[in-house]
């Protein structure tokens, strides 16, 4: 695989500076034209021997902007100048004109738990470069884990209310914000808007994000993460982080188990042509042994 040309030499940690929205992610990257990168990506994926996901990683590694507006839509790749959202950048690149990647493969990449090309985290971080690697970790702990912590606390609050005889309701979600951040969600949204000038367009959906439709929720979540770190006790922070990581691991294992379950071959009728097909994982019916009467 032929690597794309880099715009400059290696970047040293001391050269990195805080980034404002719309600025280049690194000084060296400022000389890189996004349109040139997109053209290189088009050429790379036109080669049948080229792994388009690896070519995508190379393009992301060289992408110069922390945010941009394309066709009226705002794309923010670096939340608060610190947290690198690689999926939003991947969505921007794959959504450019004349990018011949099948829609099914795009969705699988953007919505799946795994990294591109099934890379391990260490290898992915190495390929995207020092600056984005640090931002990748910031996003993981500041958004993905933070949302998982919120879900875990909400689950605990719901169980406690149920144990006390209360009927299931949506109050547990609001309680989770008060437990974690000492304020209601509405109060936090108002505080967030006052500090950042941004509004939260829709409620958080937890760690399973749907690419392209979360508005400023990720930014809000990262802001909550920063706020909690400023105000919480270190021991409490460690405990909550462990709680979020454990929930993510349970969710990952559950998804892996679901994907590996056996499926039942079901009949599919297509106007006279009768054959069978194997259902995809999301519609699969697990095979359950039936009891045998004796």
Cα(first) to Cα(last) distance is: 62 Å
What fraction strand? Answer: 5-15%
Kindly report the average pLDDT value.
77
Please summarize the sheet with the most strands. Answer: 2 strands, antiparallel
Domain count = 2
Shape: globular
Proportion in helices: 40-55%
Structural class: mainly alpha
Give the topology string: H per helix, E per strand: HHEEEEHHHHHHHHEE
Q: Return Rg in Å.
A: 22 Å
Poorly predicted ranges: 1-24, 203-213, 262-290
Strand tally is 6
Q: Can you give a write-up of this model?
A:
- Helix content is 50%, strand content 8%.
- The chain has 294 residues and is mostly helical.
- It has 2 domains: 13-128, no CATH class; 133-253, no CATH class.
- The strands form 3 sheets. It has a two-stranded antiparallel ribbon. Strands 3-4 form a two-stranded antiparallel ribbon.
- The longest helix is centred in the middle third of the chain and has 34 residues, at 130-163.
- The protein starts with 33 loop residues before the first helix and ends in a 16-residue tail after the last strand.
Q: What is the fold's blueprint, element by element?
A:
Layout: H1 34-45, H2 52-62, E1 67-70, E2 73-76, E3 78-79, E4 83-84, H3 86-94, H4 103-111, H5 121-128, H6 130-163, H7 171-181, H8 185-196, H9 217-231, H10 234-260, E5 265-270, E6 273-278
Antiparallel strand pairs: 1-2, 3-4, 5-6
Helix pairs in contact: 1-2, 2-3, 5-6, 6-7, 6-9, 6-10
């Amino acid at each position: 695989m032929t690597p794309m040309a880099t715009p400059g030499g290696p970047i040293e940690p001391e050269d990195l500076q805080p980034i404002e929205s719309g600025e280049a992610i690194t000084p060296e990257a400022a000389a890189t034209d996004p349109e040139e990168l997109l053209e290189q990506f088009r050429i790379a994926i036109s080669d049948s021997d080229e792994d388009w996901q690896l070519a995508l990683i190379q393009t992301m590694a060289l992408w110069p902007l922390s945010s941009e507006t394309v066709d009226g839509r705002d794309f923010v790749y670096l939340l608060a100048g610190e947290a690198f959202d690689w999926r939003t950048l991947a969505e921007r690149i794959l959504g450019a004109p004349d990018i011949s990647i099948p829609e099914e493969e795009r969705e699988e990449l953007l919505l799946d738990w795994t990294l591109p090309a099934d890379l391990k985290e260490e290898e992915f971080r190495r390929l995207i470069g020092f600056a984005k690697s640090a931002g990748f970790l910031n996003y993981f702990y500041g958004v993905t884990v933070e949302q998982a912590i919120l879900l875990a606390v909400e689950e605990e609050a719901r169980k406690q209310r149920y144990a006390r005889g209360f009927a299931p309701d949506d109050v547990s979600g609001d309680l989770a914000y008060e437990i974690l951040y000492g304020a209601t969600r509405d109060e936090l949204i108002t505080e967030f808007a006052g500090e950042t000038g941004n509004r939260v367009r829709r409620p958080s959906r937890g760690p399973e994000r749907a690419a392209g439709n979360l508005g400023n929720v990720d930014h809000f979540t990262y802001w909550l993460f920063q706020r909690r770190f400023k105000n919480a006790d270190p021991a409490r922070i460690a405990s909550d982080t462990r709680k979020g990581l454990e929930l993510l691991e349970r969710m990952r294992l559950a998804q892996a188990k679901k994907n590996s379950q056996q499926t039942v071959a079901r009949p599919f009728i297509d106007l006279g042509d009768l054959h069978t097909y194997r259902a995809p994982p999301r519609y699969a019916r697990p095979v359950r042994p039936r009891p045998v009467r004796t």
